[in-house]
């Protein structure tokens, strides 16, 4: 490895179950929204373009189960629920911000690489794997 490269041990058994809970697209986006302020279910659904009711409900339950968000029933008619990020969830703010900023800075390059790859595949530049 290069001298300036960060060397990390690869403990897949220890990290995979955790990353499966926090690194999916909806979890990252939900936590990013809740980092700024608490939100109700329909507010989250409006802000997360493309998420289905079921996907949001399932993701919120997973995040609550993992201690990353808390759920508070509001004394309103009809009964409302507000979701708030916990201290554990807020500890993901910095890494998620870095990932978000990376995606903004590199999205065009990523799209260009995808288009180049797809063009080479269409033109037969790759041998099919067996």
UniProtKB/TrEMBL annotation:
Molecular function in Gene Ontology: DNA binding
Q: Does the keyword Oxidoreductase apply?
A: no
Top-level lineage group: Bacteria
The record ties this protein, via InterPro entries, to: HTH_HxlR, WH-like_DNA-bd_sf, WH_DNA-bd_sf
Where's the HTH hxlR-type domain?
8-111
Q: Which Pfam families did the record assign? A: HxlR
Instruction: Write the record's keywords in alphabetical order, separated by commas.
Output: DNA-binding, Transcription, Transcription regulation
Q: Has UniProt tagged this entry with the keyword Cell wall biogenesis/degradation?
A: no
User: Matching PROSITE patterns, A to Z?
Assistant: HTH_HXLR
Q: Which PANTHER family match?
A: TRANSCRIPTIONAL REGULATOR, MARR FAMILY (PTHR33204), TRANSCRIPTIONAL REGULATORY PROTEIN (PTHR33204:SF18)
Q: What is this protein called?
A: DNA-binding HxlR family transcriptional regulator
Read off the lineage from the record: Bacteria, Pseudomonadati, Pseudomonadota, Alphaproteobacteria, Hyphomicrobiales
